[in-house]
Amino acid sequence: MSRIADRIAVVGAGAWGTALANVIARAGRMVTLFARDAATAGAMAASGENRRLPGVAIDRRVAIASLTECRPEGDALLIVVPAQALRGVASGLAPSLVPGTPVVACAKGIERTTCRFMTEIIAECLPEAVPAILSGPSFAIDVARGLPTAVTLAAADETVTQVLTRSLGSAAFRPYHSIDVRGVEIGGAAKNVLAIAAGIVTGRNLGASAVAALTTRGFAELMRFGRVYGAQPETLTGLSGLGDLILTCSSPQSRNFSLGLALGQGLDEAPRTGHLAEGAFTAAVLVELARERKVEMPIAAAVAAVLDGTMTIDVAIEALLTRPLRAEGWQP
């Protein structure tokens, strides 16, 4: 692989995909943003905006195309679709993928039907690709506007991840490279579930101290889970773990936090399936994986129970508050 990926395709023209396309253009690379159909691509090209990022212009250097009209090609591909849609999109790319092409998953979740992480799905659907994962504390609107953001980009091959970070990086967007793929994936998936819990606590008006306590104890759960599944501690305490947890547990800009907030406020219209709140899909499978390895995750388990309707919020809060007192620490 060359020292720079000059041509990059972004598959998925939602808010995050559009923001990343802007990032790539600012980095001086040739970038094509692929929408799901010709109508969506045409509307974005005509308006110069994505309706999910109102007031933010799509960089003029971003080419916009449709998946129905042409196949994504490039020195690297970024797949920017929700976690539960990754398999279908990746499978569709198989006929045209050049062997050895890095394919970067940009979703934070675990596939609910298979318990697979994002790079595992890429490896299954695109066996000739080089799987990678991009994650970290980042809101699409901030990134699209060019506000300072730092993330983690991981691949098993350190040379590949260094090339990708050089290709995407700029003064305002700083990707740090890692070979701890699983650690980056675990941080991104688990923090979404914990952000729902933080939103519930906020929605119940339990106070800032309670949110701080929940976030801290939630991080202990993330560390326990990560250690058992092979993550490096420095990854989980870095951008894609603790950094992302802090961001999503403290801002209504987070869809996961907003879902929890609505649930905590008792809003009937609170979306139990969490349209783009990845944590709503991840909670049950995260808890399932934790139980398989006997990892204690009471906060994540409470969120999963609230989402599937087997426990009320009040009962969940009481259960957490009445847990036995113990020494502090993230070890079991």
Describe the structure.
- The chain has helices at about 15-25, 40-45, 85-95, 120-125, 140-145, 160-170, 180-205, 210-230, 235, 240-250, 255-265, 280-290, 300-305, 315-320; strands spanning about 5-10, 30-35, 60-65, 75-80, 100-105, 130-135, 150-155, 175-180.
- The protein has about 325 residues and is of the alpha/beta class.
- α4 links the parallel β5 (about 100-105) and β6 (about 130-135).
- The protein is globular and about 55 Å long.
Summarize the structure.
This protein is of the alpha/beta class.
**Overall body shape:** globular
State the share of residues found in helices, binned by percent: 40-55%
The count of strands amounts to: 8
**Sheet with the most strands, sense and barrel status:** 8 strands, mixed
- The separation of the N and C termini measures 42 Å
Tally the helices: what do you get?
14
Helices and strands: which structural class? alpha/beta
Low-confidence segments, ≥5 residues, pLDDT <50?
none
Mean pLDDT: 94
Strand order of the largest sheet: 3-2-1-4-5-6-7-8
> Which value, in Å, is the CA radius of gyration?
19 Å
List SSEs in N-to-C order. Answer: EHEHEEHEHEHEHEHHHHHHHH
Strand coverage percent: 5-15%
